[in-house]
Amino acid sequence: MKDLTGLDFMHLKALDKISFTLNSGEILGVAGIAGSGQKELCEAIAGLQKIESGDIIFKDKSIVKLTPLDIIKRGVAMSFIPEDRLGMGLVANMDIINNVLLKSYQNMPGIFIKRSIGKIAAERIIKKFDISTPSPYHVVKKLSGGNIQKVLLGREIELSPELLITAYPVRGLDIGASYHIYDILNEQKKIGVGVLFVGEDLDVLLELCDRIMVLNSGKIMDIVDAKSVTKEQIGLLMLGHKIKDEEEKHGA
Amino acid sequence: MLKVVKKAEGSFRQTTILRIVTVVIALFASSLVIAALGYNPVNVYSELFQGATGSLPRWQETINKAIPLIVLSLGISVAFKMKFWNIGAEGQFYMGAMGATYVALNFKDLPSYLLLPFMMFAGFLFGGLWILIPAILKLKLGTSETLVTLMLNYVAISFITYLQYGPWKDPTAMGFAKIPNFTDNAVLPKVLGVHIGWIISLILVLIIYILMKYTKLGYEITVLGENIQTAKYAGMNVTKILIIAVFISGGLCGLAGMLQSSGVERSLSDQISNSLGFTAIITSWLAGLSAPAILIVSILFAILLQGGAFIQSSLQIPASVAEVIQGIILFFVLGSEFFINYKIVFVKSKKEAIK
Lengths: 252, 355
What we know:
The structure holds two protein chains of two kinds. By secondary structure, chain A is an alpha/beta fold.
């Protein structure tokens, strides 16, 4: 269903000739030392980064160089949950309703914004994802980290994406809230959504993902099967050593 | 030891109460200044209030002063909501007045029902174009709009002075440097003794309220003001929104200039604003950038301005006393912003601070 291929990216060399395929109903983990190009990769797919060359194919259609507005207007079923919740994904000083409207107001007809639609959606998200908030009129900033993340995740999942890109979705959350987020991602996987999961906890990556892509300095070191790989092997890949080389060295 | 700590933002109600308390404290502080100058503060305040509201003509004069303040504050509020610090309302006001005057002097033969809307259009257009200079400089070169809008005020005022002494000088004024008076069809008609600008400003309050609260554009302006990254992430066309919003802001300030030149002055000079564009920054900020609050705060400030002019003659007090009061209010309001966002805690000793 989903092919993301030939991501050639030379802008600041943050990403360098990245090619991979993400299938539907799969969680593809992205591992790497912080600053290896994870953020740029996510933003490139979401249309927030300049792309030098290459292509991104989503359901047989090229979506490379589409702006975020194009993606919304053309109904590309893709959601991006950025690393910086309050700095990018949400508006900290607005209430839940206004934050829920952020991705859907563009498609409303006319010049007016219909908050009644946002209120219904916000109430649905609060119920579905069990967000503890006094009301949908509560300012997002005053919620706890886990609830803030659930608002963001809830809004994006409400758009019924077929591709879900998440960058460090559990950063700064406690264990309980983190597991809640993993459950949500697993549910999405079960209904056939392709999930790109950028994470930093290797135990979680191994447990949650089907395959793990390891980045180093903007290049893909390898894409490995999460069931058979070990933490040590991923660690070495993150540092830029090919698994094979290491084995040879050990053998010698 | 004192230490400044950032505090959680209060609710709208708390902030409003704090602002009202601020004004009360400011009036108290002003009364000390008035007393120090040798006047009785109670007497001055009551006289000031009487002078602005004591009779129907005084009320009309107060409303006359409130009209440009309301329209200017509305314009400023649109830009400020986006965190585009438009300090150039004064200049946009003059450019708008200039555009309107150009139309008034060159299309004298039009009937007033065509000429007045044409003048309003010109006022809006010139005010809007004037603010596009800092907006485009900001977008293309990343300059600070605060500085550029501020400096363009003086360019605009000096340009009006040039017109007044040069190309637009009235040849029939016997050498006196003034721009010709408008013909009657270029003067705004009066309703209830005040030029029709008061109805226009009420309509504008309503329009801006709806624009900011219920339209997509208002939503986009608010998001952009809160966080430009989020705006980009949500697919907003940041450049387009900025240009449109800023044009509305400058346009409204220009329209205020048209209302003043046509409704009150019946001409143009480099004195018609008398720093209303700066006063409007205070009113806009005091009103929390909300359109209905701008209406109230502007009328209160107009009372202060009109009353200040009144005590000059009735109590032989310089009008600058009223300006001192204004200045003290602004000082306290800006100071209160600090206390809205921060609190001061006492730290007993260095050892304890480390703990």
